[in-house]
Amino acid sequence: MDTDSSKVANVWVPVCCERVMRYNVFLQKDGTAYGSMVCTSCNKNVTFELEHVADLSAYGEGARVLSLLGSPKPPKETRRKVDGDAALSDQTL
Ligand SMILES: [Zn+2]
User: Fold this and answer.
1) What is the pLDDT of residues 39-70, one digit of tens each?
2) Using CA atoms, how far apart are residues 10 and 20, in angstroms rounded to an integer?
3) Which listed residue, of 55, 60, 80, 90, carries a Cα 20 to 30 Å from 6's Cα?
4) How far is the CA of 10 from the centre of ligand 1 (A)?
5) How is the chain split into domains, by residue range?
6) 4 alpha carbon to ligand 1 midpoint, in Å?
7) H helices within 1-93, ranges in order?
C-alpha cells in the first residue's frame, strides 16, 4: 500500500531534441511575470504568460490545465522514451 512519502504525481515534462527544455520565469518592471521555455539544443523557445484566474471555459470544452515540471537546470541526459501506455493510464487527469 502507498505511504505518504512514496506518493508521486505525474507531471508533463517539456521535451525538445530529446532533452528536457530549460524553463525560466522573468519578472518585468510593471510587476507582471512571464515564463520562457528554451531548448538548449535548437534554441526553440516558447513564452508562457501567467494566468492567475483562468476561465477554462474560454479554452473550450474539456480544457485541461497541465502541471508542468519546468526548471532552469533540467537534466542534461538524453530523455528516455516513456512507456506511453503506462503514462496514459493515469486516471488523475
Ligand atoms: Zn530542440
Assistant:
1) 999 999 999 888 776 677 788 877 777 777 88
2) 15
3) 80
4) 23
5) 12-53
6) 36
7) 84-88
